[in-house]
Fold these 4 entries.
Entry 1:
Amino acid sequence: MDLKHAHQAQYSGVHQTDDDDDYHPPLPVSSSSRTQANDDHQPSEDEEAQLLSTEDYIEQFEFDDNTDTSSPPFLTTKHSRSNAKSRLSPIYRLFTFLSGSSHPHRQTLTPFLLPSIQSLPRLTLERLLSHPWQRAALLSTGLLLWLTILSVSLVQSKGTLLYADGEEGGEVVRHLDCVSTFWGPGNECGVDGERCKPFGNVSFAFRCPADCRQVQVLNPRWVGGQEVVYKPWVIGGGDYGDGSAAGGLTAASTETETETGTGTGMGTETRVYRGDSFICQAAMHAGVISDSKGGCGMVKLVGEYYSFFGGEGGEGISSLGFDSYFPMGFTIHPALTGPGKCPQMEMKTARSLAPTILLTSLVSVLTTSATTLWFTSFIAVFVHVGLISDPPNVSGPSDTILPQLISILFERLLPATFTSAVLFWTCSRSTTLGAIPPSANFEKTFLWLGSLWIGALSNFTLESWIPLSRLSAHDLSHQPGAVAALVAIVAVLCLTIAYQAYSFWLEGRVLPYLALYGVLLAGIAVGAVISVTGLGTLELRIHHYVLALLLLPLTSIQTRPALAYQGLLLGLFINGIARWGFDSVMQTAEALRGDDGLLGSSLVPLVDGQPLVYLSEALVETPELWSIAVKWKGINETIEALVPQIHGRGREEAERLWGLSVMVNDVERHRRFFAEEALEDQVFRWERDPRVVMTPEYFRFAFLGEDGRSLDYSGAGTWFGNGTWSSGPEYY
C-alpha cells in the first residue's frame, strides 16, 4: 500500500493492511465517547501545526524504483529534491517560461463594433439564397462577369492600332517597358554599334506603362566623364543652345509639333535624346506621356547628334547632359489622333482595378468560408498584378504582347496557387481566417483584404517611399537613405515579431515555432556562409516573396494585428511571384548583376605612359587630322603594378582575360583578342577633324572575357577640343 495513503488513512480513522485492500468505514463513535476523548487529550495550537507540517512532509516521500517494497522505503526528502532543481534551474526555468502562460488560452477576435450590422449582409444572402448551390452559382456568375470586364479592357488596351488622320491603314503599336532602349549598356552593341543599327530614318508608334518615373539605374554607368547611379537614365532633351545635328539633321532639331497627344505637352520644340536613354522616361521628360497614366507616342531615330543638353522636364525628371557626339539620337512626338488613337491609361485601371476590388470585397463580406475567400482573392489579385498593375517586363508589337503576358501568368500562377494552398492549410485555415466569427466580417475585410491589396500593389504603395531597391552592400553604402530605411524596417519587424511571439506565448505555442524558425535560420546561415566564402560564386538573396514566406507562419493566430500582417505578407508574395517569378534564394553573381552591373574585376589595362597626341597646324585650306595613340603595359607588368590594390586576386583573373576593349564617347571603338596580338603590342590610334569635332572625347579601357563581354571599364581620360589630354579619376 502506498505510504502516503496509509498515513492519510491513519489520521482519518481508517485502518488498512497490505493483505486487505478493502475499505472499512470507521466505527461509529458516540457523542459522549468523542467528548471524553477530547477531554483526555486536547491538542495545542503547536501540536496542530506540527500535525499539518508532518502531513505535508510525508507527502513528499517517494518510493525508490530500485527499493524492495517489503523493506523500509528509501525516502527522498524535499530538501534533496530542491537541490536537484537548483542545479537545473536556468534550463528548467527557461523551458517552463517558453512553454507558455500558466493559464494558456486561445486568442479570439471579438467584434469591435456593431456585430449585428457586420453579419447582416451574410444573413440577408442566406435568406434570399438558402441553398448552397444557389450561392455557388452567384459566385460563379460574379467571377464570369469579372473575367469579361478584364478581358475587354486588356484587348482594348494592348491590341490597339494607331492611325493617322484620314488614313485607312495604320501601324501596330509597340509596347515598351520602363527600361526599353535602343542602345544596350557596356559593349553590347559591339564595335561602332554594329549590333544596334540602324541609327536613323526609323520611326514607330509605342506605348509605355504607367509608373516609370521612379525607375533608376541601380548600377554605376558612365556618361562621358560623369559616373551616374540611382538616377533616371535620360540624356539630353534640354535647351538646345548651340547644339547642332550631324548629317543634315539640323532641320530635325527645329521641327515643331502641334498635337498635344496623351501627355501634358512641353512646348513646340522637338527634344533630342541620346540613343541609350530609356525611351519611356524620355517621353515623360518631353511631356508626351504622364507617369500616372502612361500613354502612346511616336519615336524617330535621327542618327548622329552633337551636344545633348540636360535639364528639367516633365514629371519632375531631370535629364543628364553630354557635351560630345553620339552615333544615335531620337526624338519623341505625341501620338497621332484618329479613330485608332491610343486609349487613355486610366480607362484600363478603372475597368480592371475597381471590379477586382469590388469582387474580393463582396466575397469577404458575404461569406463565412475561409477557403472561398482565400482562393478567390488570391487568384483574382494575382491575375490583376500579373496582367495590369505590375506585369513582367515584356516588349513587342501589340498583337504579341498579350499572349506573352498570359503565358507568363499561367507559368507562375499554378505553382503559386499550390504554395498558397499550403500556406492556407498551415497558417490560416483553423487559426486566422477560419476562426473569425461572422459578426466580424467588416473588420476581416478591412484588416485582411485591405492589407492584401496594399501588399499586392506595393509598387505603388510601398516601394515609392522606401529608398532601398536591393538588399546589397553596394546599395546600402551608396543609395541615399538606404541605411535609415533598413534600420526602420528592421525595427518594425522586431516589434511585430515580439508582439506575435507574446501572443503565441499566451496560447502556449512558442516551442513548436522556435523549432521551426531554428531550422529556417539554420538554412539562412548556411546560405550566408556560402555567400561570404564565395563557394561556387553563389550569393544569398532574400527576395520579398521569400520574406513573406518566412514571416507568414507567425500570423497563424486570431488577433487583429495578425489579420493585417497576414494580408500584407500574402500580398507581397503575390506581387513578387507575379512580377518576377520564383527567383532562387541562391543566385550566381552574374544573375544578380544584370546587364549593366559591375563585375567587380580587379584588373584594368594600364596605359604605358601618357597618350601620344599629334596636332597638325590649323591650315585654313587643308588642315590635317589630329590623332592620339594609346599603348598599354603587358599583363604581368599590370598585375605587379596593381598587387597592392587587388591583394593577389588579379593573378586568378588574369587567366580569364582574352582581349582588350576601348570605349570612345561610350561607344566601343576597338576590340582585339590577345590570341591575335599581345596586349603590350597593341596600339590604339584615334583621329578627328578639328574643324568638325570641337567637343571633348572620352576614353575608357577594359579587358574582355571569354565570351567577348567587357569587364569593368576604367575611369575616363579626356581629350579636349583644344587637343590637350587629362587623366580623370580611376583612369590608369
Note: Residues 398-427 form the longest helix (30 residues).
Entry 2:
Amino acid sequence: MLEQLMSDVIDSSSSTSTIESSRSSKSILQLITCPICLEIFREPLQLPCQHTFCKLCLERITEDRWGRCPVCRGCYRVPFAGVGSFEVNRTIVNLLESLSHTEPKPMLKAKCALCKLEDTITVCEHCREAICCKCRRQHYDEFSRYISSKLNETQQETEKLIAKEVENIKNHEENVCRSDDIANVIRNKVADLIEKIKQEETKLLHNVQEFSKAEQKLIDEKNACLQDLSIINKFCLESQGILHSKEETDQEAIEIRQKCEEYVLSVNDLQSRILIVKTPIRRISFFNRDISSDSISLGFVEIGMVLEPIESTVQLSSIFLSSLKIEPSSTTSSTDADLQHCSKQLIRCLSATLQQQSDYPNGSSPSYRSNISTSDNNGCCRQQLQSQNHKRTPRIIGKRGTRDTEFMHPSSLAYSKRDQLIYVCDTYNNRLVTYSIDGIFQQVYTAISETGEIRFHHPYAIHIDSDNRLYLIDQSERRIKVFNRDFKLIRVIGQYGRDVGQYSAPCDLCTNEQNYIFVCDAGGHRILKYSEQGQFLLAWGGLGTDNGQFKCPACVCILNGDRLAVSDWGNDRIQVFNCEGDHLLSIGQRGKLLAEFFRPLGLAYDETTERLFVCDEGNNRVTIFNSDFTTTELVHSKIGFHGPYDILLLKDGRIIISEHRAHRLQII
C-alpha cells in the first residue's frame, strides 16, 4: 500500500510538472510571438505604446509618417530615419537568446514550408521558414548546397582578383624601379650641369684674377714712380731755400747743383714714361647672360596612362543599365549581348576621354563641350566633340626678352582692319609691336618718336575704332590718348582724378558703332562713357558686390544690341549692361567649374556666332559662352595657358591670346 501510494504521488507530481511546463511554454510563446505575423519575433521593435512587433511587419503596415498600433490602435509618429529608429525591445531579445541555449525551440502548430503538412515545426535560423522535423535535413542540404555554390563562386572570383592584383603590384614595382632609374638620370644631368657651371665659374674668376694681378703690378710701379717724384719735389723745395740764404758759392751749393742735374735726368726719364708713352687705361666689365627658365630646363617627365578594356562579363546594375538606356532583359543571352556591345562603346568613349586628358599634362582644360548624347539606335553612349575651330596646334610668338620678337608682360591686343595688322601692348618694354595676321613681325613703335616727341609711357591697353583711330591707355601717366595712323596725337580723353567725369586708374576701353567711348576705371570701380570728342556723358557702378557694382573692373567689349560686357575682376564675374548703364545680366561666380571664374580679364565677341570669349586668368583657361550666355566649350591649346590676359578674334576663325605671365602670344 505504501509503495502504491508513493507511486501515485510520484505520478501525480510528474503530471503536475508536465502541466506546469506546458503552461510555461505557452506563456513564453505568447511573449515572443509577433501579433502581426504570429511568428517568433524577428528584430523586435517597441512602439511608444509599449507594444512590440517585428521590424519587417512594421515596415509593411507603415505607409507615411504616421501609423496606428495594431493592438491598441494608438497613433505613433515614424522617425525621420525610418521604422528602424524605434527602440529595440531588449527584454524580448534577451529572452530569445536565453531560450536558444537552455530550452528547445517553442513548437508552433503551422504548415511546413516544404511538405505543406501540419506538423510540429520549428523556425529555421537561416531563412526563418517554418520547417517540420522530417524536412529539416532536406532543408539543410539545400542550404548547404546554396552556401557551397556561393563559396565556390567567391573563391573563383577571389583567385581572379588575386592574380590581377599580383599583376598590378608587379607593374607598380616595375614603375618604381623605372622611376628610380629616371631619378638617377636626372641627378646625373644636374650634376653634369653643376660641374659645367663650376668650370664656367673657374674660367671667369681666373680672368678676373689675372686682370687684378696685372692692375696690382701697375699700382706697385706707379707707387714707386710717385715715391721718386715726391723725393725730387721735396729736394727742390729744400734746395731753393738753402740757395736763397747763401751769399756765395760753397761746397753745399755745388752738391746741390750736381744732385739737381741727376734729378733732371730722372725727371726726364719719368716724364717720357708717364706723358710721352701713353699707357692704356683698362676697364673690366661683366656682361651678365641671364639664364631663362626655358634654358635650364632638363626636359620633362611624362606620365602615360593605358586604359584597360572592360570585360563584357561584368554584371552591370540596373541603375547603370538605365543610365545607358539599356533595358534589362528577361533572358540571359540578350542581356549579355547588350552588355558586350555596350562595353565596346564604353571603351571607345573612355579611350577618347583619356586621350584628351593625356594631351594636357600641364592641367590645361580641353576645349570640348560637355555634350553627351545617349540615345543612338543601339542605345549606347557616344560623345560629340564640338570644338572644331580650336583644336589646331598653336603657333607661339615671342618669349621673355627685349628684342623685337620678345615681350615683357604683353597685355592688350587690337586689330586694324584697314592695315590688317595686330597691335600688341608690350607694357614693360614700353613699346607697341605690330604683326601681320600670319604672325609675322612688322614694326616696333617706341615710347619716343624719331623727332624726340614722347608718345607714351608703359602702354597698358589699346583699341582701334571703325575710323582706324588708335586709342591708348598710358599706365604711368594715366591718360587716354587718341592717335591717327601716322601716330600723331589727336586728343586726350578725360583727365586723372576722382571727381565726376575723371578716372583714377583706367585699364581698358572700347567704342561702339556711334563712336561712344566706354572706359573701365579700376581705381574708381566704375564705367565711364564719353562722346567721340572726349566729352563726359555718363558714369555708373561703384565699389560693391551687388548687380551693377564693381570691384576693379578690368576689361570691356561691345555686344550686339547696344550692349556691353564688363569683366568684374574682383568679384569673379561678367556683367552685361546696355549703353545707358542699366544692368541686364550677371554671369558666373568664383570657382573652377565650367561657368565659374577666378579673376577674369580680357573679353572678345564674335558678332557672327554671337559668342563671348572670356580670359579666365586665375584658372588659366579661355571660356566661350553662346548667345544666351550658357557655357559651350573651352578654347583648347596643347601647351595650355599661363596667365591669359587678352584675346583677339580673326575673320578666318583663328584666335590670338596674349599671356602676360608666359611673355608670349598664341595663335590657335
Note: The chain is about 35% helix and 25% strand.
Entry 3:
Amino acid sequence: MGMSAEGERAASPREEEWPEAEKAEKLARGAALKWASGVFYRPEKLEGLGQYRNRERQRNSSIQSRLKSTVQSYLEGVSAGLEQLRSAAREVQNVSQDLGAARWALLDSTGQFQGLQQMRALMAEHVQLASVVQVLPQLFSVHEVFSHTLQLLCEQNLLEAHAELMMMEHLRDNILSQLHLRGLSSAQATVLSYFSGLQELNESLAKQLWDIVGSSLQLVRDDPVLFVTAVRIIEREEKIDESLLLEATFLPPGRPKGWRQKFYHVLRETITGAHFRATPMDAEGSGLARHLAALQKDIVSNLLVVKDLMVQCVPAHYNILSICTTTYHQALTSHLQDILREDLDKQALFLLLEWALRVYPSPDMMGHPDLLPEVDVSALGPLMSPELVDQTERKYVVKVKASVLEWMQKTLEVEFKEWFREEEPETDHQGFFQSALPVIVMQMLNENIQVASLITDSLQQKVYNMALEELEVFLGRLREALVQCGKEHQKDRTTPKYYVSYLLAMLNNNLALSSSVSSLHSDTACREVPASLQAALDRTQKKTCQLLLEELLLDLQPLCLQLPSRKWLSGSQLVSSMCEVIDKYAKDFSRVGKPVFMLLLTESELLVTSQYLRALMQKKMVCKSNEERRQLCDRLLQDATQLRELFCGLGLDRSQQSLEAVFALRELICLKDPALLSLEVLGFATKYPDVSDEHISTLLDLRGDVSKEVRHMVLEMMAQHPQVLPESYRPIFSTILVPAPELPFCIRKGKCA
C-alpha cells in the first residue's frame, strides 16, 4: 500500500509534467485493443498469434533503434550548441572590455577634437571663398552680358541670345543652390536683385517666340529657319525643366517654364483666333454660305501646310498634325454651336447640317486625298453631337413647316379665287375636271422631303411626318373653305357660275392627293398612308359629295313638293322632269373618276328615293276610294319603274338601288284586304328595319280605308317584333321625318267655359 501510494505520488508529477505523453499512451492502448479485437474476433485466428507477436516485436525493435539514434543526434547537437554559447559569452566579455578602454581614451582627447572643429570651419570658409573667386569675373560681367543679350534679341539672333541667357541663369541658379544648401536663405534676395535683368530678358525672348509660333503657318511657307530656331529654344528649356525636376533638391525661381505647353497653347489660340473670333458674320443665306466655304478652303489649305511643311520643322513627338487637326475640329464644334444659338432661317439650318454632316468628312475637306492617311476624320468624332443634330433637325422642320403652311394657304386662296372665273375648270386627257392644286401641294411637299434626304434619313423622316401632318391640316382648311363657299352659293346660286364643275374638280383633286401620298417616301416599306390622313381624305370627299347632293336636292325639291296630288295621279310629268334633272347631274358626275362617279350615282339614287318617300308621307292626300288607291298603285309603279330604268341606264345595278322600297310600299297600298295588312307590314318592316310606327301609320292613312282596330293590330304586331339594323344596311326611312299628327280639336283664344 505504501509503495503504491508512493508510486501514485511519483506518477502525479509526471502526469502534470507530461500530460501529452499520458494521453498518447492511452490512445495507443485503445487503438491496440481495437485492432486486436478486430483481428482475433474468431477462435481460428488465434493460431496466428505467434506470428503477429514476432512481427510486432521486430517492428518495436526497429522503432526503438531509430528513436535512440534520433535522441543521440539531438543530444550531440545540444552539446555543440552549449559549447558555442560559452565561447560567444567569452568574446562578448572581451569586446566590452575593449569598448570601455576606447571610451576612456576618447574622453582624454576632447580638447584635441575642438581644435579640429575650428580647422573644419576654416576649411569650409576657404572653399566658399575659392568658389566666389572663381565666379567673380562672371559676376562682374553680368550686366554687360545682359545688354549684349538684349541686343541679340533685338537683332533676332535668338540662338545666341538664348545661349547667353542660359549661361546667366545657370550662374544665378548655382549661387542660389549653394545658399539654399547652406541655409543662407536671407542672402537669396540680394542675388535675385542682382540678377533681376534675367526676368526682362526671359519675357522679351518669350514674346518673340510666341510671335513666331503665332505666325508659324506663314513662316514655314516662306522661311522656316526662324520657326525651327524657336522650336530648338523651346526644347532646350524643356530639357532644363526635366533635369531640375528630376533632381528635386532645389528649384530655381521661374522653373519649370513649361514652354512646350505654352507652344501648344499659342498655336491653338492662333488657329482659333484666326478663323473663329472674327467680326460677326451674316448668319442668314448667302453670308453663311460664303463663311462656311471660306472655312473649308482655309482649313484644308492650312492642314496641308502643317502636313507637308510644319511636321518637318518640329520633333516627331510633338504630333503637330494631330494637334492642329484636333484644334480645328474642336474650334469648329464650338463655332457651329455659337451660330446655332442665333435664330436661323431654314436655308441657314440646312447649310449647317449639310456642311457638318456631308461636306466636313467628305474628300473636299477633312477626307481630302492629300491629307490621308495621316488625318483620320473618323477618329475625331462627329462635328455635331447626335443631340445637337436632332435639335437642329427639329428647328429646321419647324421652319419648313411654317413655310409649307404659308404656301398651302396661298395655294388654297388661289384655288378658290379661280372658282369665280367665267369658265369651267381645266380637264385632263380623260375629260375629268381638275386644277393645279394637288400638283402644287404634292410638288412642294416632295421637294422638301427630297432636300431633307440629302442630309440624313432621320431628317427625311421628320420632314415626311411633318408633310403628312400639314397635308391633313390642309385638308381640314380645304373642307372649311368648301363649306364657306357652299354657304355663299346658297345665298346666290348664280355664283360661282360653275360651282358644280369646281366641286367635281375638287373630287378629282382629292383622288389625286390620295394616290400621290404613298409616293412621298422613297422607301416602299414606309409608304403606308396614316389612318388619320386617310380619314381626312375620306372626310374631304364626303363633304364635297354632300355639297353636290345638296345642289341636286335644291333642283329636285320643287318637283317633290308637288307629290302626291290629284294632278299627279291623273298623269303628271313630274317624274319625267325629275329624270331630266338627274340625267343632267349624272352627265356632270361623269367628269370624275369612276369610283367617285359610282359613289355619287349611288348616293343620288338614295337621295331621290328618300325624297320621293318623304313626299308621300307628308299627309297631303288620302285615298277616298278603291279607284284612287288603284290609281296610286299604278302611279307608284310607273314612277319607280321609270326611275329604276334611268339609274340602270346610268350604270347603277338594280341590286345597288334603294328604289325597291317604293315597290314594297306600293304592295302595302295595293293590298285589297286591310285585315292582311299586319302580315304585309311585318314583312315590310323585316326588309326595311329602320321603318318606324309613325311611317307605317302615315302609310295606313294614305290608304284611307284602315280602321282603328286594324291600325291598332298592325302597330301592336310591330311592337311585338322589334327589328335590329344589320351592319351593312343602308338606312332609308330613318332620314325621313313624318309630320306631327293633327290634334283632334283646338282650343280657342277665348276664355274657358
Note: The two ends are 157 Å apart (CA to CA).
Entry 4:
Amino acid sequence: MENDGSGSSWNEQYASEDSKQSGKRTGHRHTPQQIQGLEAFFMECPHPDEAQRQQLCEELKLGPDQVKFWFQNKRTQCKAQEERAGNLSLRAENEILKNENEAMFGALSSVLCPDCGGPPFGREEHTLNFQKLLLENVRLKEQRDKIAHLLSNMSKRPTVGDPFASVPTQHISSYGINPSNMFDPSSSFGPPTSQPIQPQPISQMDVSLLSETAASAVEELKRLFFSEEQFWVKSSIDGTDVIDSENYEKFSNAVKKFRSTSAYVESSKDVTVVPIEATTLIEMFLDAEKWKELFPTMVNKAKKLHVLGSELPIRENCNILRVMWEQLHILSPLVPPREFMIVRCCQEISKGLWIIADVSHNVDFDFDFVNASCYKRPSGCLIQSMPNAQSKVMWIEHVEVAQKLDTHKIYRELLSGGSGYGAKRWIATLERMCERMALTSNLTLPASDWSEVIRTGEERRRVLKLGERMIMNFNEMLTMSGKVDFPQQSKCGVRVSMRMNLEAGQPPGLIVSAASSLRIPLPPVQVFDILRKLDTRQQWDVLAYGTVVTEIARIATGSSETNCLSILRVHPTQEENNNGKMIAQESDKDDMLMLQDCYMDALGGMLVYAPMDMATMDTTLSGADVKISDIPILPSGFIISSDGRRSTVEDGGTLLTLAFQILVSGRTSRSREVNERSVDTVSALISSTVQRIKGLLNCPDQF
C-alpha cells in the first residue's frame, strides 16, 4: 500500500453498501488539514480514548474507524522507525566493542610482571588480588562514612568548598538483588538516583557562555509572557494553555535535545496571587535550601553550585545568575524523578516587576547524570509586587522529555496533561506553602486553632516546623532508591527498599520502606475525607487497630479546613458505652501520640503521620536545647491525586499511593534473617492495608 508519511497513509472505509456486500474497500487519502490536525493531537496524546476520538471525528469530519486506524498505523510506524534506529545504533556499538575487546585481549596476552618481567598473573592470582582490593575498599568506605557522620554532627550547613559536603551518610541497599552481600552497608545495589554533586572550577569562557544562555532565556520568556495570543493555544486534552509549537519554532533558536521519535515536549502556564512580599519570594527562589523548603512535595533535592554576578560584564539581560542542580519528584515511586542542571537568572525588568528564568545549559561540569532524560527549555515566572504584602506570580513550564523515563501506566495519563510536572502543580504548591508560611509566622494562638497541649505561640511554631520536616522526609523517601517490585493480588506491586540510617532526625538502624499505588473509582476529595475520619481509622491503620483515636490539638495550615496539622492520641484500651460506641478507658500507661499533617489543593492532597511518645512531644514543645532537625521521626502516609481524566478533585477518579516506613533493627544488626523477615512483614502489611482501604471505600477488586 502506498505511504504518504502521515502514519496511516491510506485510511480505509466502506464506500457504499455495494462495496460492503462485495467485501471490497476503497482507500481515501486524508486532506492536508486533516493530517495536520491528527499529527498535532498525536504529539500530545498517542493513545486517545473513545471520547477524544469522537471529538476528532467531529472536528476533522472523519469516521471513527478512520481516526482509530490512523492512530494505530501511526504508532506502528513510530515504533518501527525507533526500532530501526535502535538496531543501527546497537550494531555500531557492538562493532566498536568487538574491536575494543580484540585490542584488550591482544594487550593482555603480552603483559609482563613489572617487577620481574615474568608472565602475567593467572586467573587465581587475579581473583585473590581482586578480593584484597574489595576488602580494602570496604575499609576505606567505612572510614569515610565515620568522618562524614562526625562532620554532619559538627556542622549541619557545610561550606561550598568542604570536600565532605556531598558525602552521603546513608547506605542504600535493596532486597532481592544480591542476597550474598545485601547486608553489607558498603555494598551498592542498582543504579543510584544521582551522583554526589560537587562544585567545580568555572572558567571565564564558561561564565560568558552561561551569561549568554541566561540572557537568551530571559528574552524568550519575555516574549512568551507578553505575547499571549501569538504563542499560546488551548490543549485538546485538558483545556490548559500550551505553547503553539509551530509559532514557537519560528522565533526560537532552540534545537531539539532528544532526537528519538518517542521524545515529547511539555508546556503549560498558570497564574496566581500569593500572600508574600515579592522580594522575600525572590530570595527563596535564589537560595537552594529555601527553594526546596518552598516546594517540599516537588523538589526532592537541590544544590547551588555557582553564584555569578559581580564577575560578569554588566549587561542588560543579566542581574543575578545561579548555577543549580535539582531533582524533582512527585506522587509515587512509580513516577520517575527528573534531574536538571540549570542556570537561573533573576532580572528586574521594571519597578516592582521581576522575571526569573531557568534553562538547562550546555556547559560541561563533568557531572555524570543518571537521569539525563529531561531538558528544561526557557521556563520560569514573572513576579509582580502588589499592595498588602502580596505578589502576583505567572508561571511558565517548558520541558523536553525523553521516552526512556519509564512512567507506570496508571500515571501516564496524568503526566501527559498539565497536572504532572506542569505550571499548575508549581502554582498550587506555591499557594499552599505561602499560606502556611504566613500562618507559621503568627506568634500568637489564633482563634482557629485549639489544643490541649500547646500553650504558647513558640510551641505552636515548633510543632509546625516539625510537621514541615515530616512532610519533607516523607517525600524524600518516595523516590525509593534501590527499588524492587513485589507482585500482589490487588494487581498493584509493592515497592520495597531498605537503608541503614545514620543521620540525625530519624531513628538509627535498619529502616524498611514500602509503597503501593492503586486506582480508586471515587473523587479525591471523598477519598481524603474518609481517610481523615478518626472513628474509622482503626479499620485501616495498624497503629490504631482495636483502639480509640482522639484529636488533642489542631493547627490550621491554610485557609481551607482540610489543611491542618493535628496531634492524635491513640488509647490502647477501650470499652463500649451505652450507645454501642467504643470509648477510651483511663489507663496508667502512656498513650501513644501521632503527629499528622494533611492538605488538599487543586490537584490532590497528602495525609502524612508519624508515631511518637509523650517524651518526644514534650521535647518538641519545650525546646530543651534540641533542634527540630534532630528530633527522630519516621513518617508514613498517603498521596491522593486526581487520575488526570477530570480537571478538578471534586469529580473523576483517584490515584492513591500509600507508603510506610518501619524501623526493624538497631544500627548494628545486619543479619540476613532479619532483612528477609522484615521485607516479608512490611510487604504483607502494606498489602493488607490496601485491602482494608478498598473495603472501607467499597472499592471493587478489579481496581
Note: The first strand starts at residue 10 and ends at 13.
